[in-house]
Amino acid sequence: MPYLGRGPGFGIRQKYFYTASADDTSVSGSDDNNLTLTFTDGLFIDVYLNGVLLDPNSDYNTTTTNTVAGLAALSANDFVEIVAYESFSIGDVVPASSGGTFSGAIASSGNITSAATVTGVAGTFSGDVSGLTLNATGDTAAGDNAAIGFTAAEGLILTGQGSTNDVTIKNDADTEVMGVATGATVVDFASGPTVADVAIKVAGKESIWIPALAMKPTVTNGCAPHVSVETTSARPDMQVLDFDKDSDEFAQFNICFPKSWNEGTITYQVYFAGIAATTNVTWTMAGVAVSDNGTIDVAFGTAVAVTDAAQGAVEELLISAESGAVTIAGSPATGDLCYFAISRDVSEDNMAGDARLLGVKIFFTTDAANDA
After folding, report:
1. Phi, psi at 91, each rounded to 5°
2. Helical H segments across the chain, by residue range
3. Where in the chain are the domains?
């Protein structure tokens, strides 16, 4: 059997009957049996005139509390029935153009398409929400599963709590774009953040180039002094330090790392050439940090070796692989001067001639975006 109105799924709280006198345009007060008209919200009632369901958008209004007004002038003995409901369905109760205020618990599988205000809602929306403004008026709180808040100082606030992230933003493919780890204040981006499609510089791995001209042979067991080697006239000259094939020789240089350095281990690559074809050349490097008012007469840390192979011809540039981690002795701190010693370990290589050092690239890690 079809129903005219809400249907059997809604609890009826009150039915109000009124017999009109001529020209009545509103209904309020007591009904024919002295039952006082009471309803929570004009959206949660049905109004019938002589058994015909009226349209709340055009036939009446409920702008005055507990009053149905704006009726067309009634005739004497017209019969008005008002049914107030305990519960409602968004799809049934809220017309697309009605607007209104929802203050109860809402569970809906339909669509909310009116320009409405939702306040104090506890429930789940499984349909579409369009033309709806969520106007938060208070702060969120610790322990909120997922909350939207607002304060005059902070503006929009998103709060949540999860086992991995407290807040996660995903794209349409349900892939995480960014997140705030549980209990953390750092925002983690799934890919490098950009501004106008240009990558933002972030803390991480950096490098410094140290040319051979910035190094000096050590006083004891030093390599040969700097020499400028011409390849061909009007072509690049090589500025080199030559390391002998018969004995271990050394050169030194120093670096004051940026303040953003994390004072951790470093790695290095060696750029060099040879005067003879070779199977391999082995280089080593060690470091030590010296702080303000500290003695410079201090031992280097453990040297770390790197071996490069396969020189095919004289004047060919050779670039070693990146070394393993070099621990800088002396407990490095911000602003320290770090001394380095580089050498050729002839017992581990077999190049039949001097190895010509062109420079060293040092890799280090930063933990700040700049040196502020």
Report:
1. -65, -35
2. 90-93
3. 12-88, 136-200, 208-365
Its pTM stands at 0.61
Q: What is the DSSP letter of 112?
A: B
* Confidence at residue 134, expressed as pLDDT on a 0 to 100 scale: 72
Residues 6+ apart with CB under 8 A from 224: 217, 241, 242, 243, 244, 249, 354
Distance between CA 361 and CA 337 in Å, rounded?
A: 17
Residue type at position 339: Y
Q: What is the distance, to the nearest Å, from the Cα of residue 198 to the centroid of all Cα atoms in its chain?
A: 17
Tokens for 289, please give them. 């940090």
Q: Which of 296, 292, 293, 306 is nearest to 252 (CA)?
A: 296
Architecture of domain 208-365: Sandwich (2.60)
Q: How far apart are CA 240 and CA 255, in angstroms?
A: 19
37-95, pLDDT tens digit by residue? 887 777 788 999 998 999 988 899 988 888 898 888 888 888 889 888 765 444 444 44
The half-sphere exposure of 55 on its side-chain side, counting CA atoms within 13 A, is 7
